[in-house]
Design goal:
By secondary structure, this protein is mainly β. It contains no helices and 11 strands.
Length: 120
């Protein structure tokens, strides 16, 4: 069983930055691909970004492209989400996910989430 623990959320003003971290308890083939999702109040959970095992391949939702950067440190079993130029509409609970497919929807393991609030 893979456990994912997110950290780094908080309150920030519009235009500011935050960096989220997600530490995985173990590294397995079933959790090689890692991703971030978010869920705003009253909305469905949506894909934000994903990264392949090697870090070579990344993918972003159009809404965050150019502002967010996903990266990973395999030595630490940790994935990061650097969020710049934050907007109030980025306010959501951000979830880390891990799986074996480089997809936007099929993930086996999920973290508990970390709240990001962007004030205007």
């Amino acid at each position: 069983q893979v456990q994912l623990v997110e950290s780094g959320g908080g309150l920030v003003q519009a235009g500011g930055s935050l960096r989220l971290s997600c530490a995985a308890s173990v590294r397995t083939s079933s959790s090689a691909v890692m991703a971030w999702f978010r869920q705003a109040p009253g909305k469905e959970r949506e894909f934000v970004a994903r990264i392949s095992w090697s870090g070579t391949n990344t993918d972003y939702a159009d809404s965050v492209k150019g502002r967010f950067t996903i990266a990973r440190d395999n030595a630490k079993n940790t994935v990061y989400l650097q969020m710049n130029s934050l907007k109030p509409e980025d306010t959501a609970v951000y979830f880390c996910a891990a799986g074996s497919l480089f997809s936007r929807s099929h993930y086996t393991y999920w973290g508990q989430g970390t709240q990001v609030t962007v004030s205007s």
